[in-house]
Amino acid sequence: MRRIYIVSFLLMLVVFLLSAWLFVVAGSDSYSMVWAFDCDEAGVLEDLIKMFRNRSYLPLNYIYGTLHEYLALTALLILSAFRRVTEQDGVIILRLISTIAAAGIFHIIFRSAVMVLHPAAGLIAIAMLLSSKVFTQYSFNGKPELIQAALLMVSLYFLNRAAVSGWRRWYLFAGISAGLAFTAKFAGIMVLPLSLIVPFIALNRSPLMIRERITASLQAGAIMGGGFATAIALTSPYMVRDAMVIVRRLAKASEVNREGFLFAAGSNFTEWLQILFGSSLLGIAGIIGLALLVGLFTLRKKESLFSAEERALLWIHGAWCLLFCLYLFTSVNFRPERFILPAVPSFALIAGYAIARFAGMLRSPAVRACAAAILLAAVAPNILKTTDMLDARLRYRETSRVKAGIWLQENVPAAAVIASDYLTYVPATFTRQLRTSLLTSRDVMLANPDSLSSARSRPHGSRISARQRSLPKGRGSTCFITCSTTAWKPGNSRDTSVSGSLTR
Predict the structure, then answer these.
(1) How far from each other are the two terminal CA atoms of the chain, in whole angstroms?
(2) What pLDDT is stored for residue 480 in this prediction?
(3) Residues in the chain with pLDDT < 50?
């Protein structure tokens, strides 16, 4: 029976990796194409291109960590020894790092389930992640979200091994993994406090006095902290040199998180719960899993219901989820779904365990079939949303923002000045570009462009009257093209998906 679970896992992993190539390549044509769909990913690519041209591992900034850029840069330098490197190579390598990280998360989840819980728990947790639109989306994205999540899962795995065996070397490995996660995107530092609680849940053969537990806790923290610092010093020495820069960067990021980006969200923590258990992440299946876990804990004779190893794993992953969510609930006042990704694999593992354990308690095949049908219905909204996202990713050339760029290329001279917002594809042949996040009417007047291209129906910030719609005079040609449902030209307005006008 165990062999069937292992074969099922390997089959899921192979199908994921083989199909991943289609989504990694989609939209990777150029830097301009990446920018039209994700300007943050384009920013990572821009830094990577500059580092490659300089043949230098010196970080250009610390918006993110350095680990993913170092891995991608090393791959590009090796590739450049055999052929000419293109922008598309950089995009594909960055995205493949995330894909491999996602596969690593699947492996850690399944290994933890096989060793401590039940193989079915691992398969259920992996299925929940694959049905998550956000997790799947970032499996093919060049940002460091998933490599950070993978390294955090590795650190939690080593902490669980430390709790089970009591060997101190596992704290060192956990600290190294957390340090690498910190060099990816800074959340690794939040794992360090967990080393202080592991000795209190460790499975020792002989009971320890409270004073001995405290001593062991401090020793574990020191060992894990040493591994954390060593990993940073060896893999990202520039982060040590620029420690104060990073401190200021983290302080600035904390201020932005607290005040909100562009605007502050409400302080109601239930919004984060709606995101976590919404159809883009764990969905109703996550709620069912956690509800079943609470039910299992409230059953009588719970000491015999959970083995010591199971309790240790649930405590560690539960503590991580609680700690990370506490930070989000109290310190982050805007709601990007990706922010909660570091805790999502742990939530999925806990929910998958509860569902598998409850299913094992059902004796009737008919009841089991009904339970499976209910679970499938619960994840159906997630699957539909994820498949829609994947389909749109493959059909990216049919989107209006790409068609707008093609229209520009075919109708506007390459020497023209193009003003656009970040969500518009502007081909690289236009070297004179002004990109702004919102493309306000003030930007238009200051840039005095030949052409405008916007993903919105009109420039942001104020209403634009018919008189204001004509661009500043004195240019050889003027054009406005919009990627949304409404396009206009001076003196004319009509509904269309992609349209434009050229006035001589």
Answers:
(1) 74
(2) 44
(3) 205, 263, 302, 457-504
Neighbours of 195 (CB within 10 A): 26
* pLDDT at site 82: 93
Q: Measure Cα distances from 1 to 119, 120, 215, 466 in Å.
A: 10, 10, 43, 72
* Dihedral pair phi/psi, residue 435, rounded to 5°: -110, 130
Q: Which residue in the block uniquely carries the two structure tokens 């990109």?
A: 435
Rg of the chain in Å (alpha carbons): 26
Distances in whole angstroms, Cα of residue 151 to Cα of each of 179, 186, 234, 264: 9, 11, 16, 30
Would you state the pLDDT for residue 202?
A: 66
- pLDDT score, position 494: 33
CA 332/CA 330 separation, integer angstroms: 6
Contact 223, 179 (CB under 8 A): no
CB 403 within 8 Å of CB 501: no
What is the per-residue pLDDT across 195-207, written as a single tens digit (0 to 9) for each?
Answer: 888 877 766 545 5
440-491 pLDDT, tens digit each? 666 666 656 655 665 554 444 333 333 334 444 434 333 444 443 333 233 3
- Structure token pair of residue 236: 């990202």
pTM of the model as a whole: 0.84
Q: What is the DSSP string of 263-317?
A: SPPPS-THHHHHHHTSTTTTHHHHHHHHHHHHHHHHSTTHHHHS-HHHHHHHHHH
In the DSSP assignment, the letter for residue 460 is: B
Burial of residue 23 (number of CB atoms within 10 Å: 0-12, 13-18, 19+)? buried
pLDDT at 151: 95
456: which 2 tokens? Answer: 């919105």
DSSP-derived 3-state class of residue 85: coil
- Tokens 């008919």 found at: 366
Contact 105, 129 (CB under 8 A): yes
Q: Check if the beta carbon of residue 415 is closer than 8 Å to that of residue 432.
A: yes
Distance CA 28, CA 21 (A): 11
The span from the CA of 283 to the CA of 30, in Å, is 34
CB atoms within 10 A of CB 365: 8
